[in-house]
Structure prediction request, 521 residues.
Amino acid sequence: MKTDLRSSLLMIVLLLLCLPSKADNTNKVTVGLTIDSTEVVAESQSFGRRIDNVVTQSGLDYMLLKFRDTTKSGKWLQFKGEIGAFSIEESKLLWTYPFDYRNSSAYCTKAGVGIAKGNKFSMLDPNTGNVRWQGKFTPVQFDDSTNIVVGYSGPRSSKLNGYDMTTGQLLWTASMPHDKNWGWNHVIREDSVHWLVVADDLNRLNIRTGEVHAYEAKTGVTDVKGALLQGLVIAGAAVAGAMATGYAAYPVGVVGPNVINQLHSNVVLDDSLYYFADREQVACFDKDMKTVWSYEFPSKTSAFSRLVCNDSTLYMFNLGFGLKNGQQHTKMGRPFIAAFDKRTGTCHFMNMLSLRKDMVEDAVLNPDGAFMLFDDGLAYKHELDDSIVTVSPWDVKEHGQLRAIITQPVYAYYNLKSMFDLIATDGIYFPVITENGDIFMVDRELRTSEHFPAYSLYWPLCMVGDRMCVYSPTSRRQDIWLVSLQGIPEIQFTIPIRGVGIAGGKLFLNNDERLYYLPFD
Prediction:
């Protein structure tokens, strides 16, 4: 009897081993719970390898899966892996392609899958994985509406090229130096073909023709002291690495060595005119980049700044810093607030702020006033034409140093209400974050009205239709929710999640082992 039982068990095991693997089949898995504890079920697949992340792009019928295995010990990630195209309609992996994580990037476009490795670019067929065309350039922007990819001939080259994404044909060549500043992370798409790019100069690029109109600007400078120290101090690289861990990170891209950049303002577009400030002056110019008026600053006073306007006046707030290596706040110039006639450029006032500080860490400017943040104090100016600034000290010992003014949506969870409260500025109250990760709401009179501890905060991962996927970075266990934009909780996810993406009307989630997807309205 025992022998028959063993034989039966052995037969069952053998049959199970002979069954087709479910690795590429779809299973239904519970991925979360609604607020009333109803199970949320999603389709799920595994692929027999570790899933590192997903790459999605709206409007496409495919997405990319990035596979990256660990070493045999399981402690380290391998440098080389694969990417694979996943059909959203068929819910299956179409193909895989070798991928080097050390120096490669992957992009989803309507024309195909773009792979950049060093200075080599390949466009793959999204259905087969076959190479459609290759070129030697470094891509900086893809535009599906015009079917054009824009890239430099090399990482440090000023030669900018436009290619047809379907054929790889070179369409145009232009010059756009980026030795002192990199603006490709913040391209302003003025219309379907015209882009504004703040590189070394402010450039208006027609991506169909490659025509560039440039306003000559000074958006960055060489840090001479830094260059000297680099040659003298053996430990310079280690020090620079340590300094690069600052809070605010403005993407710097590829620029020259020892550069202090971001010495410019935002671009204000108003009545077919542009307003822009750099290291030397503020100016108004037309769409051909011809100057309408300009106002020159006193030498070496302007740096990182912000512009706002009303019907008649252009306001400027210079914060008095630049960004070294794209991250570290470095003293440059002097903080000031100025106002100019939008039509003529006449300077109504330019007040150097009587501050004990060398620079303002962060600020919000509007025509009605300015809210300013320092690492150990706050200030609000009700009258912009007044040069006096009274700084209210911050209790650093109790709350930690101030780091930034929060301008993106953040949510705080309250257990008693089972609700997420949206934290955002309304022009009267300003959310500020400390080095401890806590957020405080401060009004114009610099009174603290609310305190949101770091453990209560949920930060956005991505928009999901008219909802937001949010997560807690401080929770001991992973804590990810889907909430309405007003903060009403809908789903708490109960599976480990490594990556999130939106494609084809579905929310995609992944962890090391599996890919999950569920439709959303």
Notes: The chain is about 5% helix and 45% strand. The helical segments are 2-18, 224-232, 236-243, 396-399. Residues 1-23, 227-252 have pLDDT under 50 and may be disordered.
